[in-house]
Design brief:
Arc Repressor Mutant, subunit A, 5 helices, elongated
């Protein structure tokens, strides 16, 4: 239901007023999901940019596919401060 009426009613009204409606065509996906899974398995610490380069797509596109597949992407942070458990006990 759109605007409280059926989809056919909307199409009929648009046609009556010479408004042509063309639904969007689905675009071809750039990312081969199986290939991305293999690439991610071979390079577990790769950054999104490195994962996106072979497919010719954006980092955001790779992120969305990984999120859709419930694959976490957590590269190691080189600058993350490591906490020593002994320091916590002494504080």
């Amino acid at each position: 239901m759109y605007f409280g009426c059926s989809q056919s009613t909307i199409h009929r009204k648009l046609k009556r007023h010479s408004i042509f409606y063309h639904p969007k065509k689905q675009t071809k996906k750039k990312i081969d999901v199986e290939a991305l899974i293999k690439h991610k398995a071979n390079n577990p610490e790769a950054k999104l940019k490195e994962l996106a380069e072979p497919f010719g797509c954006s980092e955001q596109a790779v992120y969305r596919v990984l999120k859709m597949l419930n694959i976490t992407h957590e590269p190691k942070d080189k600058y993350k401060k490591k906490i020593d458990p002994e320091e916590l006990k002494n504080s």
